[in-house]
Write a structure and sequence with these properties.
Length: 247
């Protein structure tokens, strides 16, 4: 997978050299290229923003540098691939594990990191009509205000990279995680069996794998019902067997 990130703080992406994402890049499973938007400015101050039409506080990112940056980046992607342009923004649709899984199946993501009050709306509108782009996704991590999209790119790239085949040493660890199958994950324990007066649940040391699996599912359902009842309501009833909600 190829990932291009355009913004005014390319150094923000340094953490993508570390850990799982760093190993994915070293192994060639993931190619991440950071671009400085100011490379496509032409004035001495390398201006990327201006006052908003209609008035109001703050500044808006100018369309010209973005247009030229996308021209250049889209000319250099994987041969024959179309890009998904992802714009992290508080007004976007929620970024979820399901969306991460859909991104992991794509050949090329291009991220546009907005700052200030955002990017001139014509940039996304023009991009959506480009042949090199299959879709423009405005995506939000949550209902809070950040200074820009770079932090969201770190989150999205990690969530996607770990889903790429060959990135995680043990793919089985992907099957029992929070949000896989629509539930939060069950509580986990390791040695020692007793710690500061707290014991590991006996069932987990029973060796009865059938009972352990049922206990874990029950715990996942209870935790999800308590913390994220919205996820329970969203579950497909067909995925719940008769015993799931009996207790
Ligand atoms: N919330 C927010 C923001 O305020 C600015 C850029 C991106 C996001 N976000 O993805 O959630």
């Amino acid at each position: 997978m190829r990932v291009d990130v355009i913004g005014i703080f390319p150094e923000y992406l340094a953490p993508l050299d570390l850990s799982i994402v760093g190993r994915a890049r070293t192994s060639g499973l993931l190619d991440v290229v950071a671009h400085d938007l100011r490379d496509w400015t032409h004035d001495v101050h390398r201006t990327v923003d201006d006052t908003p039409y209609g008035g109001g506080a703050g500044m808006v990112m100018k369309p010209e540098p973005w247009g030229e940056a996308l021209d250049a980046v889209l000319a250099g992607g994987p041969p024959g691939a179309r890009a998904r342009l992802v714009v992290p923004t508080p007004g976007g649709r929620p970024f979820t594990q399901e969306l991460a899984e859909s991104y992991a199946a794509l050949p090329w993501l291009v991220f546009a990191c907005g700052r200030y009050e955002g990017i001139d709306a014509r940039v996304a509108a023009h991009a959506a009509a480009r042949a090199e782009i299959d879709a423009v996704d405005e995506v939000s991590l949550g209902d809070y205000v950040l200074a820009g999209g770079e932090v969201a790119v770190l989150v999205i790239v990690e969530a996607v990279a770990r889903l790429l085949p060959g990135v995680l040493g043990n793919p089985a660890s992907l099957t029992e995680e929070s949000h896989t199958g629509g539930l939060l994950e069950y509580p986990v324990f390791t040695k020692p069996p007793a710690w500061r007066g707290l014991d590991v649940p006996e069932i987990l040391r029973s060796g009865d794998h059938g009972r352990i699996a049922r206990w874990r599912r029950d715990q996942a359902l209870r935790r999800t019902a308590a913390v994220r009842p919205d996820l329970i309501r969203a579950l497909d009833p067909a995925t719940l067997d008769r015993t799931d909600l009996a207790t």
